[in-house]
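Support request, please re-run this one:
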Amino acid sequence: MSDQPAPQVARIHPTAIIEPEVEIGPGTAVWDHVHIRGPARIGSDCIVGEKTYIAYGVTIGNLVKINAQVYICTGVTIEDRVMIAAGVIFTNDRYPRAFAVDGSLADSGPTDDTLHTTVCEGTTLGAGAVVGPGLVIGRYAMVGMGAVVTGDVPAHALVVGNPARVKGYVCVCGTPLTDAKGAAQRGGSSARCTHCRQPYQVLDDGRPVMAPGFS
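Re-run finished. Output below.
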């Protein structure tokens, strides 16, 4: 009798539609009425909430939490440890039309106009946020609920509104870095998170950068 633990496997709800060429890592749970088109890749230990749609060509890292009714279109890459709250919508075409230049129905597949978006490690996208095409959302950023993101988001930035604008910065743990702005105003070069005590270096414009040795 072996003492080795049983290998983890992905858990797929029977109502989920998983097309051929979809790779799902061990420990990932895919809930009811999810549709994942192939080819696509989802890493290990993720959660894909009910009624979520993931298009072909999407890559999702490890330890990603996707809540219910999220729409992830072609051209989106989601890195490790990202949280995507309920009802988030991604887009990938800046000038969409239903018809082609010759008047016929436009093809639904990717074209030269399809733009790629990357959600970097540790980011949180709040419920109902809309993410425009061709963007980079920086590491550990926090996008507020209902925000409409039309431009790149700096690392650790807290963005809210329509269009989304930077209102502050957050720690890796998600706590607002209120000391970062104060340190910049005082001419200082360092700050700490009030919750987890993570140290940061503060740039002249108030943007925090994690101190060496932290990631």
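The chain is about 5% helix and 30% strand. Helices lie at 178-185.
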